[in-house]
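To whoever is on call:

I kicked off a structure prediction for a single chain this morning and the downstream step that reads the tokens threw a length-mismatch warning. I double-checked the sequence; it's 716 residues and nothing unusual in it as far as I can see. Pasting both halves so you can look.
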Amino acid sequence: MGKKKKTKVPFRLNMLFLAVFLLFSMLILRLGIVQIVYGEDFKREIERTEDVTVNSPVPRGKMYDRNHKTIVDNTSSNAITYTKSQGTSTEEMLEVAERLAKIIDKETDKVRERDKKDYWIIKNPDLAKAKITEKEWALYNEKKIDDKKIYDLQLERITEKELNELSESDLEVLAIFREFNSGYALSPQIVKEGVKAKEYAAVSENLEQLPGVDTTTNWNRKYSFGKTLQTVLGKVTDSDEGLPRERLEYYLSRDYSRNDRVGKSYLELQYEDVLHGQKAKVKNVTDKAGNVLDTEVITEGERGKDLVLTIDMDLQLAVEKIVEEELLKAKQQSGTRLLDRAFVVLMDPHTGDILTMAGKQIGRNEETGRSEVQDFALGNITTSYNVGSAVKGATVLTGFSTGAITPYTTFYDTPVKIKGTEPKRSWKSGLGILDYKNALKVSSNVFMFRTAINVGGGNYQFNQPLSLKPGTFNIFRNSFAQFGLGVRTGIDLPNEMAGFKGTENAPGKLLDFSIGQYDTYTTMQLAQYVSTIANGGNRIKPRLVKEIREPILDKEKVGPVIKSFEPVVLNSVDAEENWIEGVQEGFRRVMQEPSGTAYGSFASADYKPAGKTGTAEAFYDGPERSKFNEPPEVMNLSLVGYAPYNNPEIAMAVMVPWAYEGSTGHHANNDIGRRVLDTYFELKDKRHEKNMNPEQPVQEIEEKAEGAALLEEIDE
């Protein structure tokens, strides 16, 4: 047998084992270093959650008038906040609330019965448990009823006597705990606003014993002119309301927090995206227990941008005073039960700037029960009325555009009678043969009736049936809409109403429509309508905001312009230039020639006004309507105008609904209108004098107010 060959496999295996041994030794050594030296650091890293970014609110933007007078500002106040961590337990919050209650006073008026029951269960767990029967606990253990059902049963079985055992101190703790619990993790929640200096200092000194509690500055809206225009400026939600439920998803999608304060009505709402500002952002890094490991400021934040309004506050205040005085005066003179409001809009007919939006209403003070005059500027866009003959300019131009009449058409002013109906006549007999200019001047109803009949293709004969072509109402309404009557004006405010349209299509109703006694219109629509005539036929979009400006620290100045809003022409009316000029001439005659319906009020005005009066027979539909079986018949008064007639710089609409009952009354529309235009031009002249003599102070326009005495008479 030959000699066997010696194998080399064992040697190679030994080398492999040695290499594996050395590698394992190095791995074990490395793991030991990681565990012993860096173990705690890596454990902390592993337990970290994602970074949490928290937004802190900033002051809202300011609002200025067109002359940069501050209308809406912010005022700071001391506040106490609470920020709960993600892992904060109910017991921990309750403990902090008990400590805080010993330092501050907290109102308990917002504590509800449900809050008391929840608190009672937390404070009395054994008694709460005893309210569930053994049978119910057995069902719970068998998972036939759940935790919610058990809790609901406990709530139901808490007696009134047990709730009454809660002391005032308990309720104060509960009020604080309620605020703690209403916030979201890592989001500061205001616990108390308007904190006194002593409380603020005491809390600041004890922050180490009050985890989550902090002292801060809160911001509230400040109105420099009191209640003036507040209904138009709008409101902001408070810290309890937070985001409105109906717009919750909208705001959350735009990085708002649920307890953020936002604009909830009118200008504050309309320009929320501008006014709310850029919130400060802080990044919190937390562990799995919710404890904050690190905080990093991402952005400091910036208060909201500022709005420069078109409103002239000097003029606004003066006009409001006029409206209030004339409203009370008319109510005293006429003795009417129903007159309670009046409105005025002043508008630049070329730009759409609203210089004044005044509205006053006599109401009851909720606290005293006495009558008082309240701000109702919003009524200029949210309430509508039959306005009467003020719309006759639109009726004439509708007749021209449809070919129903020409500038040479004349009608004899005699009553119009359709078979089966009462005669319809002008407010005064003996007006004679009229062309359209004089028909406007003397406010002939008959001229408008005959124009409407021609538009409808009717063959009018006295006391005979009258038929009109289908769609005649639509022809008129579409034409009126070109002037802004019966449609929304487009003003930059939410909830503007378009007015109400009559539902009947009888020929007689069309005649009523032609003199403004069928469909209803707002005061803002009247202002847009007369501006359209004043500027030569362009319907301008009314606007309350003129500019958006950067916020700056200097309280005495406004920041640079970010955006300036240019005039917007919504449409041009379907009318030839000479037609509009003819209506302008008719309006001039109304105020400047004898027999004009406003001549007695405006003849002496040196600023050359033009306009149209309106008196409408209507039915009362105001706040007292439930007191009547049948709505009383009332007279609405209106006035539209502009000045100077040959170069208009200001347009005006006045509305006095339910001015009086019966055939005799007053002329509050003309009285208000004359004083308002006088005031506008007086203020303009005084400002001109001020510019010429800078050291000379502008004299305020003063009128002796007799409102308090007149209100006392109303109450009596």
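Update from on-call: the warning came from a stale cache, not from the record. Cleared it. Sanity check on the structure: DSSP finds 26 helices and 20 strands in the chain.
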